[in-house]
Amino acid sequence: MVIGVIAGLSLLFVWYTRKIWFFRDPDHLGTEQDDLVLRSPVYGRVAYIRRIENGSVESEKKGERILISDITKDDWPDKEGDGWLIGIAMTALDVHYQYSPMPATVCSIRHHAHGRNLPMFDLWEYVRITWLRRGVQLFAKKYVFENERQTMWLKGKEATIALVLIADKFVSKISTFVKDGDSVPAGGKLSFIGRGSQVDVVVRGQPDLLALVQVGQAVHGPSTVIARLRR
């Protein structure tokens, strides 16, 4: 009897998580429109914050520099070789809609397919980030460069950024709600990506950008300011 009740409650929890909780969509229509504020495009946990220099990022794990174009799968402008890379990991328990980090115009949206997506986490990393709500080291893991992704470039008044939506092994579709040329407010809904996944925020230029979050910190979509831009 007890085992049956526990099993039933477990199934109910899984159903609720997958069918209802997973698709929740908080209201961000009242987000302040500030051209100098960069907000989190997703709910999740900050996985890494890296300085981009001459179009590449230092990887202590690999002992080499990694081209930012290996992440965006797009060319990096020669005249804007510096910038910032902020990676935010999402788990199955996080909101999986993506929102505009600032008032901007959609410049381009490019989908980059891959034959077989790799898992983001091993078992311990999954438990740590999903259930213990702790940060894990994800920078320079193989999936960051190989998995299916969608790169969306947004141009604001003070900065141009890319949102790189990186799919997990079990993601089958990225749904996009905007198109090239659309104007989007800060907090405006951009897309939806299934299950565990990651969004990298790539900022062109802005050498004096002030990061306002730390690695391992939880972010709550546009409600969390992740950085302040400079004029």
How would you characterize the overall build of this protein?
- This protein has 231 residues and is α+β, with helices and mostly antiparallel strands.
- It has one domain: Distorted Sandwich (Glucose Permease (Domain IIA)).
- The chain is built from 4 helices and 16 strands.
- It has helices at 2-19, 69-72, 123-131, 143-146, and strands spanning 37-39, 43-52, 56-59, 64-67, 83-90, 97-99, 104-112, 149-155, 160-167, 174-176, 183-184, 189-193, 197-204, 210-211, 218-220, 225-228.
- It has an 8-stranded antiparallel beta sheet, with no helix packed on it.
- Strand 3 (56-59) and strand 4 form a beta hairpin.
- The protein is globular, with a radius of gyration of 18 Å.
- The protein starts with a helix and ends with a strand.
- The model has no long low-confidence stretch (mean pLDDT 84).
Task: Break the fold down into its secondary structure elements and pairings.
Layout lengths: L1 H18 L17 E3 L3 E10 L3 E4 L4 E4 L1 H4 L10 E8 L6 E3 L4 E9 L10 H9 L11 H4 L2 E7 L4 E8 L6 E3 L6 E2 L4 E5 L3 E8 L5 E2 L6 E3 L4 E4 L3
